Amino acid sequence: MPKKIICFGEMLWDIFPKESIAGGAPMNVALQLHHLGMTVEMISRIGDDKLGNKLISFVKDFGLSDRFIQKDPVHPTGTVVVNDQDKENIRYEIVKPAAWDYIQWTESMEKGVKNADAFIFGTLAARGEESKATLDKLLETPALKIVDINLRPPFYTADLIEHLLTKADVLKINEDELTLLADFYDLPSKMEAALEKLNELFDFELICITLGSKGAALYQDGEIISHPGYPVTVKDTVGAGDAFLAGFVYKYLANDSPEKILDFACALGALVATYSGGTPVYKMEDIQHIQNL
Question: What percent of the chain has pLDDT over 70?
Answer without folding.
Answer: 99
